[in-house]
Amino acid sequence: MATISEHFIQHISEQGLATDELAAFIDYCQQPLRRSIRLNSLISNDQTTLEPWLEAGFQFEPIPWAANAYWFDQTVKSLPAGLGNYIAHQQGQFYIQEASSMLPVSALFAACPNPKIVLDMAAAPGSKTTQLAAMMNNQGLIVANELSSSRLKGLFSNIQRCGVSNVCLTHADGQVFGNKTPETFDAILLDAPCGGEGTVRKDPEALKDWDLNSVIAMSQLQKALISSAFMALKPGGTLVYSTCTLSKEENQQVCQHLLDSYPEQVSVFSLASLFDGAHKALTEEGYLHIFPQIFDSEGFFVACFKKSGTTNSDPETQLPTQAQLRFPFSKIDNQNLQNFTAYAEHFAWDISQLADNLWQRKNEIWYFPNGIDNLIGKIKMDRMGVKLAEAHKKGFQLEHQAAIAFGQDFRANRLGLTASETRSFYQGRDIFPETATDNLSSEILLTYQSAPIGLGKKVNNRIKNKLPRDLVRDASFARLD
User: Fold this and answer.
1) Residue 288 forms beta bridges with which residues?
2) CATH number assigned to the domain covering 413-471
């Protein structure tokens, strides 16, 4: 049972929540949160992902504001295990994401349908980054920033698992982007750090020790971040501000700070027509202020803005440091391109479309998304694009992340595994395949339901497991049958 501070109840009632709405809010806070997933179009399609679940008797309800997204209808059949315990999740066929948190990306694309370079300013754990990548079909560039070093690893893991290739990770305070990358991005998503008042259905302690002073302190950080984001936005660009909290101090008042700071350059993009039913959560400004009882979801807030004209930044803070200027990569040279092209023929992988995006560092070959040149020398980048391969004395050795991101384009030396074999693969075991492997040689792409899961090496009648150790799953998987 959720414990809700009386101070919060008083606070939120003073902000306009009517008596009957307040009663409904408190009631919904005590109810379990509906389980929801977003299918990952970079890995699989809806039919391939959902069909085994439907055959097992599960039913789904489409989420009206997000593509390829569904609630589980647990009144028909309940989940016997956590969604993270199924092969399809490990493979990246779906992402476990709360329904209301899918709204910010939908709002961004409603206002900016074809962005070329996007900043996800507070990206971990990666739900919105991977949603952005799917909406962009891995084209263009996403800069996924995360201040917390402990959360950066998880962000990278989710990006890799979901087959994302158009992301550059940065590890910086979001407040630096306005000055270090002024007027650089077509669209920016600021899913701001917040008090988390809307997460009480998932975290029963979220409102137990609620304190107004903490809310006000958080709003000061949010105002600094939204100003930085607006300065980093190109004229004509789109800024989406969102939180999973409910107080106006962290929502409407932060948005008003932006409007007051740049009165001639910022306008609200109304979300009234974002989806059928949006009016239920629409504020007079055109924002969405979602309480849990409105859509039977987590609480959330989403606002969208357009920028006209330019913003002035502080020239002294634009100067990059020497550490930021160092960029140890160069465009691939002709010899390495020829060698890597010949190596790719082993998989009948045509890399001609990637040639302009290939870079090298010592004996490594990398794929960097279009637009990365705009960031070199401006901000330090941690992990960029996809590491494809390393050159050794006996030739190239393909990387796991390359297999996941580009394996769909491999036309040879592929081996489809059964569900049982796939479970063994993810548990780090070698595979003794049921199907014939006479037509396969040496390095092999392993797939499940036609989508890549990793690499193996054929040794007689055995496939040696090449899954990186940090991705090996020691626990068993849940079954649909």
Assistant:
1) 282, 302
2) 2.30.130.60
Topology, domain 6-96: Alpha-Beta Plaits (3.30.70)
DSSP E strand boundaries for 270-385: 288-290, 300-307, 330-331, 358-361, 364-367, 383-384
Structure token digits, residue 404:
């996941």
Task: Give the residue numbers marked as catalytic.
Answer: 244
Return the pLDDT at 79: 87
**Any idea which residue has 């440091």 for tokens?**
321
Distance CA 344, CA 363 (A): 16
Q: Where are the domains of the chain?
A: 6-96, 99-315, 320-372+386-404, 413-471
Instruction: Tell me the angle at which helices 127-135 and 149-161 cross, rounded to the nearest 10 degrees.
Output: 40
DSSP-based three-state secondary structure for 444: strand
Question: Architecture of domain 99-315 in CATH?
Answer: 3-Layer(aba) Sandwich (3.40)
Question: pLDDT, tens digit, for every residue of 415-455?
Answer: 999 999 999 999 999 999 988 788 888 899 999 999 999 99
Q: What is the pLDDT of residues 41-63, one digit of tens each?
A: 999 988 999 999 999 999 999 99
| Second CATH level (architecture) for the domain 320-372+386-404 | Roll (3.10)
Residue 317 confidence (pLDDT): 47
Domain 99-315 and domain 320-372+386-404 have a common topology:
no
133 φ, ψ to 5°? -60, -40
**What is the DSSP secondary-structure string of 217-249?**
HHHHHHHHHHHHHHHHEEEEEEEEEEES---GG
Q: What integer is the mean pLDDT of 316-333?
A: 68
